Amino acid sequence: MPRPLPDDLLKVPHRRDVSFARLTTLGVGGLCRWLFEPTTEAEAQAFVRACAREGLPWRVLGGGSNLVVLGDLEMPVMKLAFPKEIRREGNRLTAPASHGHIALAEAAAGAGLAGLEFASGIPGSLGGAIRMNAGAYGREWVDVLTRYRFLTPEGELVEKAPESGEFRYRWSFLTGGRVVLSATADLVEGDPATIRAQVAEYRGKRGTSQPLSKRNAGCIFKNPPGLSAGRLIDLAGLKGLRIGDAEVSPEHANFLINHGRATAAEFAELMAQVQAKVREVHGVELEPEVEIWRE
Length: 295
Ligand code: EPU
Fold this sequence. Notes:
It contains eight helices and 21 strands. The chain is of the alpha+beta class. The strands form seven sheets. Strands 6-7-15-11-12 form a five-stranded antiparallel sheet. Strands 1-2-5-3 form a four-stranded mixed sheet. A four-stranded antiparallel sheet has the order 17-20-19-18. The protein is globular and about 50 Å long. The model has no long low-confidence stretch (mean pLDDT about 95). Bound molecules: uridine-diphosphate-2(N-acetylglucosaminyl) butyric acid (EPU).
């Protein structure tokens, strides 16, 4: 029997038994037994502090666009539900981590601020994007990030500027119980029409090379240094490999898609088969780019 959760934790807004299929873009996974949705930084802090004090393992969920959940999860999950406010000071935009990533990029474009065009096709939450140092077309978040706020694993609130070593390709130190609360991008004033044209070009590129009409979790594997995971999987002849409703996208081999009724187990198996074949054909070990959760 799982032990009861402490009272101060239960004061944080929460829901029970929410399907991960509804919380992730890939649309698979079991039940999230405890979904905590703090609406303020103080509530998020109360959550982290209570879990730290009790020695309770927990996880933080963003937009669920880069996540594959394998089965039910009994441990508390926190998904920030802060008010969707964007603050502008000069050319700087600050948004809460729970803000939609694409919506933030659109707001920047709408305000005539350049620098976040690369983000306009990357789904998920801002917090998830910062934590992954999300990027596209040669740009990534650390290029524009000027300040951010986060909670330490003990629940202390820190606000700081990024420093070297904190962010790398699709990686940041904001894992292991650290939670991004908000981020500030330092942008430059630009011509709104030029910014919109760049956004449209990136969207168009993505739309033709990626299977955006099907449920997916973005790129499944990281690009090995100097190589392209998509190309390696493609050359290994794996496009269209299908287990149940889970398939290696015929459009972009580094995307796995859910045709509707795929299960977490099918995706786990498909990922393992792709890794094994790429190892056999190319001698390269593919490392997941998506996060994988299991109890
Ligand atoms: N390619 C193939 N076959 C395929 C897919 C790609 O041969 O099935 C080739 C392409 O022709 C190209 C090369 O592989 O020559 C690279 O492909 P692409 O331009 O699509 O970029 P990518 O490296 O696969 C990366 C990011 C994407 C991001 C795009 C655009 C990673 C793992 N992926 O993809 O990010 O949208 O660049 O900048 O870094 C994500 O992070 O989830 C993601 C989708």
